[in-house]
Amino acid sequence: MRKPASSTLAAAGALAIMLGSLAIAPQAALAEGASVVEEGKAIAFNRKKGNCLACHKMKGGTLEGNIGPALVNMAERYPDKKDLRDQIWDATRVNPNTIMPPYGKYRILTEEELDKVVEFIYTR
Amino acid sequence: MKKLLLITAAVGVLGAGPLVSQASPEEDLKAFQAYFQERFPNVPFEEFANGVYAIDKASREQWEAIEEFPPYEIAIEEGEEMFNTPFKNGKTYASCFRNGGIGVKGDYPYYDIEKGRVETLASAINECRTKNGEKPLKYKKGPLASLVAYMAYTTRGQIVDIKIPFDQRARDAYEEGKHFYYARRGQLNMSCAHCHIDNAGNRIRADLLSPALGHPTHFPVYRSKWGSLGTLHRRFAGCNKQVRALPFKAQSTQYRNLEYFMTYMSNGLPWNGPGARK
């Protein structure tokens, strides 16, 4: 965009990008939110990643297992989204005998993947 | 006095361990079998030898159809032929086993006091071979699985009756097998018990989880997924891999002890191997 290279310019550029993204915030956030949910769904349903359907029934799934509870009304059940994230990160903290794999603690998913899964599950 | 001191010392050592929560094998057996009978009140006890087909009507019909022309039949014939073919020294497998090796699968696993370890039929077959100057066979599939299939076949209808002798090492082997069954492992952090005790009869995706009670009675099995016959330890390794744990070697101490625990838990059921599974 601009010619000379310097750190101030880089900072200015970053600022411009930030301002730019703020300017178009509502639509962009919506679109981005939707795509994060979609990405989260893909990770959640992937048998080698979340494989959530192995145990949980949820809207959009097929041939689900019934080992864990059905995932419904998640936003109501977890008013604080962080609690849902903690549950997926390591379910043994709440129930030491749970069969649920500790997705974050044992790095079955990366932190980024886990964030996306949380966004998706939160819409169920 | 010396004797008394020894006893006190022994009690002291035991007292330090998790003795409080440790039931005797006999008590474990009772509780284990009662759990499954309570969980599946409409399943007759001997039916548990049929694994998942004891509790799954839908797949049972398919299984019964498969059993009319069993995929393991060729393996039984192959095993029988091997069994009756003399080694280079002129002896046969029959020379290594009680009753000429017919109907003796139920003798295993047992705790061998002299060797100080759990002896399985598979390991006894290989010991018979090496004793007679033959090379040992691979433990998971192939000729050895066929031999075990034949020997299981001649044992069909007998009742599982594994003994845990009053020998501390035997009790320890049993306890280790039990601990293996209930311990979490692998990246998925699951124990055998999570699926096959706590969730027996529940669905994991579209598959019904089979009850732990009866698992070892019908091995070796021809598994459609494998497209071949496999031994119990081959299945152990598969289960361990499924929870993303490093499997142990077939006939490792871990798997022998596990077989010891699991088979003891199936006492009272009929031996019905070889079997056919999905």
Commentary on this structure:
Chain A is mostly helical and 124 residues long. Chain A has one domain: Cytochrome c-like domain (Cytochrome Bc1 Complex, Chain D, domain 2, Orthogonal Bundle), CATH 1.10.760.10. Chain A has helices spanning 7-23, 25-45, 74-77, 81-89, 111-122. Chain B folds into two domains: 24-70 and 164-277, Cytochrome Bc1 Complex, Chain D, domain 2 (Orthogonal Bundle); 73-153, Orthogonal Bundle (Cytochrome Bc1 Complex, Chain D, domain 2). With 278 residues, chain B is mainly alpha-helical. Chain B is globular. In chain B, helix 4 packs across helix 6. In chain B, the strands form three sheets. A three-stranded mixed β-sheet of chain B has the order 6-5-7. Chain B has a two-stranded antiparallel sheet with strand order 1-2. In chain B, strands 3-4 form a two-stranded antiparallel sheet. Chain B has ten helices and seven strands. In chain B, a hairpin with a 2-residue loop joins strand 3 and strand 4 (207-208). Chain A binds chain B through residues 53-55, 63-67, 92, 97, 99, 101-102, 106-108, and chain B through 187-190, 194-195, 198-199, 202-206.
